[in-house]
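Budget justification aside, the reviewers requested a transparent look at the raw inputs and outputs of the sequence design task funded under Objective 1. We therefore reproduce one unedited record. The lines immediately below are the structure tokens for a 362-residue chain.
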């Protein structure tokens, strides 16, 4: 399974989207962009977690002037999130933004995209983007659909989201600009999946995939995994952002796990562990947690199995590079389904780590 290879390739300060390139993982800061110290500190944490592109909110000109100072301190491309004021979009690009995220509808202002003044505002933004080689993401959300589309479809629908996106694509292409990335997010998983499927058949631009306003912690993670996973499993999507309420570092962790689970990217070890049952006779929960923590420091792409049953463990995880299977106060160390030795329960973690480090690179 791969993402669409026929999409147009867009280069964002060295990060390539579309054209069969790997699906990238991105996030957005929740600091005040005007607070450069706090914003840079959060971006550095995101970089460490594996973030490949970061977006910051740009609500005013003070935030615009903060962008160069932020860029000097970070290693990944910086996207500016702009709403309502087209002058902020122009200023962000003039101050070094590598990518722009806009909703053309609110950039046009109260006059609307069909009005001459509204079109002129969009044109000024596109003209600057073209001059500076800055890609634009057209972001259509269920919460900001145009009134005529809402009336036409009787509310938010996949068809309405796609029609809005196609409308904006046509406007911007009319200004001879094609360095576009598209997103059509809804907080509804079924609506989002249907919308991305429809848009994928109508456009060859790279698609930014996400479920907007997914929620917090457990519920938001499940909802994002269900929606983003469903879309990616159809071969649709070139970059993803998991939208969680809270620490954005968790968005990166969740996004990477989604891509790992679908076989689209490899980000270090994959942990396989059984859910435990009445046959489990060791403290498998604690053992799995310790193994997981240890493996967070490993860069090698390996599969590690933590199984609770010596009868089925090696067989069920036969493809694992290394693993353990518990028994009564003891367990087996196995590699590729082949049992290496039997050790006491208290030695299982240490022996597992020893085997991992035998030829592995941290």
């Amino acid at each position: 399974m791969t993402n669409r290879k026929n999409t147009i390739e867009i280069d964002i300060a060295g990060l390539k989207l579309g054209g069969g390139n790997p699906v990238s993982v991105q996030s957005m800061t929740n600091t005040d962009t005007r607070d450069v110290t706090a914003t840079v500190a959060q971006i550095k944490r995101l970089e460490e977690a594996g973030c490949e592109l970061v977006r910051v909110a740009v609500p005013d000109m003070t935030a615009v002037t903060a962008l160069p100072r932020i860029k000097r301190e970070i290693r990944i491309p910086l996207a500016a999130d702009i709403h309502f004021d087209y002058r902020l979009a122009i200023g962000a690009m003039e101050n070094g933004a590598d990518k722009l995220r806009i909703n053309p509808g609110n950039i046009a202002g109260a006059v609307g995209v069909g009005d001459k003044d509204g079109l002129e505002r969009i044109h000024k933004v596109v003209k600057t983007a073209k001059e500076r080689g800055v890609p634009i993401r057209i972001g259509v959300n269920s919460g900001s659909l145009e009134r005529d589309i809402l009336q036409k479809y009787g509310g938010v629908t996949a068809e309405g989201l796609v029609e809005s996106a196609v409308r904006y694509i046509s406007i911007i292409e009319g200004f001879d600009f094609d360095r576009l990335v598209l997103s059509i997010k809804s907080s509804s998983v079924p609506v989002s999946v249907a919308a991305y499927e429809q848009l994928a058949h109508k456009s060859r631009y790279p698609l930014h995939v996400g479920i907007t306003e997914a929620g917090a912690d457990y519920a938001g993670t499940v909802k994002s995994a269900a929606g983003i996973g469903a879309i990616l499993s159809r071969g649709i999507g070139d970059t993803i952002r998991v939208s969680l309420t809270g620490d954005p570092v968790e968005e990166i962790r969740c996004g990477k796990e989604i891509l790992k689970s679908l076989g689209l990217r490899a980000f270090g070890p994959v942990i396989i562990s059984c859910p435990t049952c009445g046959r489990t006779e060791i403290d498998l929960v604690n053992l799995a947690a310790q193994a997981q923590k240890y493996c967070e420091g490993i860069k090698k792409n390996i599969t590690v199995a933590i199984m609770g049953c010596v009868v089925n463990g090696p067989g069920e995880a036969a493809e694992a590079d290394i693993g353990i299977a518990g028994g009564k106060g003891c367990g087996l160390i196995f590699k590729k389904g082949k049992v290496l030795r039997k050790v006491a329960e208290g030695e299982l973690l240490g022996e597992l780590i020893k085997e991992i480090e035998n030829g592995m690179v941290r």
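The two ends are 29 Å apart (CA to CA). The mean pLDDT is 90. Computational costs for records of this kind are itemized in the attached budget.
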